[in-house]
Each structure stands twice: as structure tokens, then as C-alpha cells.
Design goal:
Strand order of the largest sheet: 5-4-6-3-7
Structural class: alpha+beta
Number of helices: 16
Helix content: 40-55%
Largest sheet: 5 strands, antiparallel
Distance between the termini: 40 Å
Radius of gyration: 28 Å
Number of domains: 3
Shape: elongated
Strand content: 5-15%
Amino acid sequence: MQWMVETLRHYPEIAIFLALALGFVIGPIKLGKFSLGNVTGVLLMGVLIGQLEITISSDVKSVFFLMFLFAVGYGVGPQFFRGLKSDGLPQVLFACLVCVSVLISAFVAAKLAGYNAGQAAGLLSGAATISAVLGVASDSINNLGLPPGEAKKMIDAMPVAYAVTYLFGTAGSAWFLASMGPKLLRVDLAKECEEYEAKMGGGLGEEESLTTYPRIALRAYSIASVSKYVGKTISDLEKGLAPSRDFVEKGRGPARVFIENIRTAGRILDPDPRMVIQSGDVMAVAAAREVLLRNEADLGPEVDDRELLEFPAEILDVVITNKNLAGKTLQQIAESQQANQNGRGVFLRKLIRGGQDMPWTPGTTVDRGDVLQILGAKRDLERAVKGLGYVGPTH
């Protein structure tokens, strides 16, 4: 044990990564419905390991703190500025109210408990889950002109107070909002959540790879001579098969239908929306499974044409950077992309915002920085990405 302690003191970088590793181990562990979470787990492990009197270089602290600030800003930046453009003023006023309330509450609590400046700063930072307070408070204490020993004592007390109070800052505030908030507002939280989920299209973005019943199917049909689409264009067929908006909002499948490939006169061709459909043409149709089953009689018999159906397909996470798409709904983006043929053959699987999967409907507004997880043939995805943004890391 002594060897371990001496090793950690001599190589503090090992202690840092040990705290991270142990925190990620205990964070997901659930006691009933409660779990610490990765952040709180790492903080607690850091407090425990820190009792071994391990000294971390101030330069290392500054670098990691700046990395944290950069990551937070990079992640929420696009949504932050979008919020200021739309309903920003109420949000700014509310943020000011929260900041003043939190500051006054922490100040009063620190005075009553007899905390010094370092403990008070840790209390404020942890209870409000605002890590940036630690950096500002450290600089302020160092500029007070205190004896080095006293200043160091205050600064060393900050992370301890922060880690202990952070637990309530996360779990306690969640409990208060879920338990006391609805009573104070006199609302039925479960009912309100159900209504909001229905309004926002909850469940539409579920991971398809986790089910044996994918909502999107690709099938080949030989167009019968009696089909109502003989003599019409591929664009007419796609519009004719498209389901209603109600079908989409109920989570039963995507709104659009695409002809991915067509075999005509013995040749396989890339579909052109203006191409006229002839009797005997074989088409690879991509759509919601239920939509295909409903319209089989209007198309013709299903056939097994492997050459027609087999082509490279991918799932990509695309970060929206096109400023012309900012503030538009998914429906408007789909229509604009389809108008210039960039969106042909592409289906939306997920909307990801701030690293979290979001429920969505055709009316959901998208902004720069959002991530659209799209599915389709490789050639179609390459075309779509050019009009959206760039391919980001896969979630």
C-alpha cells in the first residue's frame, strides 16, 4: 500500500487517470433508481484519492480547466446564440435571476456555517454545478495578498467542498424539481410529460438497430400493366405513395418514399424523377414497411432481384453547418433538399442536440450544431452531406 501511495505522489498523472477510471466504474452503479453518474463519481474518487496528499501542478490544473471550458463552449455554443436570436431576452432575465438567487443563498449558507473564502467558493460551485467558479475563486484568493500558507489552505478546501455539495447540486435539485416542483406549480407531472412527448413526437428517433422490425424497408416490384402508375413519372409515384403527416407523427414510419433503382429494358439505371414508368419495369422502392404493404396492389408483384436491391448503404451523423438551414423545420429542410435532389434516398433516424437524442416531428426546428443521423445509399448520403454540413463522429 505504501508503494502505491508513493507511486501516486511521484506520478500524479496516474492519480488523475485513476480517479477518472474509478469514477466511471462507480458512476453508473444504481441503488434502486439512483445513481451517482460519471461526473459525481469522478469527483468523489478525486476527493478520496486526494486524501493521500498528492500534489498536482498548477499548470496541469489550468490546462484541464481550460479544456473543460472549451468543451462546454464548443458543445452548447450554437444553441446558445440561437436562443439569443429568438426568445433570448426572457432567458437572459431568468439566468440573471437564477445567478443572483444562487449567489445570495450560497453567501448566507457560508456565513451561517462559518466557512472561509475557499470553502464558500466550493459550496457555491458544487451546489450550483458551476465548475468555472473554482478557477475564478482561485485567482481571486491568490490576489488577496494573504500569506502563502493561508491562501493554499483556502484553495485546497475548494475542491473538497465542491465535490461534496455537487452531489446535492445534481441529485438534490433533480429530486426537488420532480417531487416538490409539481406540487408548487399544482400540475400533474406525468400527464404534462405525456402531452409534451406526444407534441414533440417522442419515440420517433428510436434506435432501429435494436429491433428486429426496422421501420424502413427496401423491396422490388415489377410494375403491372394495370398499375395506375404506368405512363406516369417516378416523381408522381413517389408522391402518390407518400403517407400522411399523421402517419409520421404517430411514429409509424418516415414520410417519404424513394425509388432507389430501376430496371428497364434489361438495364439497371439510376432513377430520374422525370423518368416515365413503363409496364414491366422493376423498381427498388424504399419506404416505411406499412406503406409498401398498403400499396402493393397499385404497383405489382414483389420480385427477388438481388442485383437491383444490393447497393452500398450507410448510417452517418451529419453536423448541420449550413446557415441557410438554421431555424427551419425538418419538413422544410426535407422539401428544400428534395427540390435540388440532394435529399433523395435519405431517411432521418435521429436528431441529436448537445449530445442527447431529441424527440422530433416534421415540425421540429433545427439549428446549426445539431446532428442529423441519416440512413441511405452511399451515393445518396454523399450528395446530402454537401447541402447539410459535414460528417461528424458516430454516436
